[in-house]
Specification:
It is built from 16 helices and nine strands. By secondary structure, the protein is α/β, with parallel strands linked by helices. The radius of gyration is 19 Å and the shape is globular. It binds coproporphyrinogen I. Coproporphyrinogen I (1CP) is lined by residues 52-57, 66, 72, 99, 101-105, 117, 122-123, 163, 179, 226, 228, 343. Residues 52-57, 66, 72, 99, 101-105, 117, 122-123, 163, 179, 226, 228, 343 line the site of coproporphyrinogen I.
Amino acid sequence: MPVSTAGSSYIEKTRIQNLFCPVKEALPAGMVKPLLRALAGEAVRPAPFWLMRQAGRYLPEYRKLRASADSFLDLCFSPTLAAEITLQPVRRFEPDAAILFSDILTIPYAMGQEVRFVEGKGPVLGPLNPAALRPVGNRLDPVYETVSLVRASLPGNTALIGFAGAPWTVAAYMVEGGSSRDWLQVRRMAFGDPERFAALIDRLVDATIDHLAAQAAAGAEALQLFDSWAGLLPPSGVRCWCLEPARRIAAALRERHPSVPLILFPRGAGTLLTEFAEIGDCIGLDTSADSGWAACNIQNNAAVQGNLDPALLVVGGEAMEQAAGEILSALRQGPHIFNLGHGVLPVTPPEHVAALRRIVQETA
Ligand code: 1CP
């Protein structure tokens, strides 16, 4: 057993003993992992590969563990189980990165807002009372324990990515109380009561900096900021509520962990991605972004990550192969990390992921 399970329950330990097993040998000393080379600006070929939501419901082994846990948040706060889930797709597909299994809503939870995940519905949050929000304290420590467990058991050429939700996207869930059809409440607050909204964003900026820095300290080698709902805002709103917070987060992290690169994923930001590329080491393209445009407008400033439509991964076969080939070819002159334009969908056949991994591996 390659990791310490100090602090875990006996039942969890015995369950985990059957689950942990390292996948590949370490890289020779001095060789930098392919994902980190791409994040440093190198046009690495074959392109490094990982997928957003690569752990999760499309994997039978995840569903099995999920069924044995009382709640989704229990999984997120159980270091041995969360580490195991992080490693599941690594064993199957040998991607170039593992992404920590956790959720962006652990921050509001740690700040004292009620957060539950309801089967078939997604996240449900209690009423937001900004005055009652408390400092995060040590409530996210189990997440950092997960990071160090994963780091200790990863194969040598696989990098570990930590993450957080961007303040705008996390605030959206906090204000709406969950997912929403029109996200009107959060926009109403941002446009109608900008001072009160700015105070919430400021608190989230500080908590996000601490959360990402602690993941880096525990062993995360790259960090991703998910701004899944940036596209709800007009350009001035994106600059105010997404770009400026990202700038503050990037500056603080550069000071605390200068060697840990930052990937920004402001979904739906369109041509404003060029402004995000001034801040981040890498820009995650969503499905709608044109890879040819990104080659001309982003790769000169930052690495690019993305952006196969997750529905093409569900379809598989020639349609997937052709679309993946077009993305690889458009971005091949500069630093590119192959990924989806959003997360893996629960209905995705795992064998399509294996096929996609092979396609990317074989495209030099
Ligand atoms: O088993 C289950 O029912 C829970 C499904 C699930 C999973 C597997 C949720 C609930 N979160 C996660 C893990 C998760 N979430 C990861 C793990 C690492 C990975 O494999 O990628 C990450 C990075 C996230 C990030 C996350 N959570 C985002 C940003 C990325 C995105 O998808 O846009 C968002 C918006 C969330 C909120 C959330 N958590 C879970 C759900 C179903 C949602 C989305 C709800 C919605 O659509 O509004």
